[in-house]
């Protein structure tokens, strides 16, 4: 222990989504992209009087994740990656120093994407704590620490998630008797995914899940859950990225 304290205390800010079947449900597929969002309502609230500087990044998924990135959106313009690991490996996780560092200010927004390869899985891969389940998180160390600034996540709109699952029942992708409303859906979640697993290789079902995650409105958690519904971020302008390693960007 030292009596000579540094000028700034560091904090850790995470982007991503809830590690549950509500946040993540991936059918067997060679590439499944999952985007999450942090909206300016959070940075307006948490960075009202002072900017912060990000200096390291730690991406995190479980065994099927193979790429993680986070972009910063400022004034509706995609101004670049905070960090991108195109070759993520669960067995070789690392905390990466950022060069250059990034200054984050009031009004900034963020998009995080995790990509998964679940083609060798026999069932849907759901969000959860075990390594056989999945996560989508991106941790950034920053200074100076802001009390309460710990997480800025997004999750699918509860209403739209419920309607999506109920519509799978109506379309015959699953067949759960007397499943008509969200309360019954909550009670039938395990049975619902058991039946989805029986149809896991149907291409139409895979496309429905991709469409849902690509189009659903979302809730945000800026340290605590917010019932407000947001549209997914669509930057008006984007930068063309050049891969210094020579691998085509996509």
TrEMBL record:
Protein name: Copper type II ascorbate-dependent monooxygenase C-terminal domain-containing protein
A single MF term (Gene Ontology): dopamine beta-monooxygenase activity
Alphabetical list of InterPro entries matching this protein: Cu2_ascorb_mOase-like_C (IPR014784), Cu2_monoox_C (IPR024548), DBH-like (IPR000945), PHM/PNGase_F_dom_sf (IPR008977)
All copies of domain Copper type II ascorbate-dependent monooxygenase C-terminal, residue ranges: 10-163
Family classification: Belongs to the copper type II ascorbate-dependent monooxygenase family.
Organism, scientific name: Brachionus calyciflorus
GO cellular component, one term: extracellular space
Keyword field contains Lipid biosynthesis: no
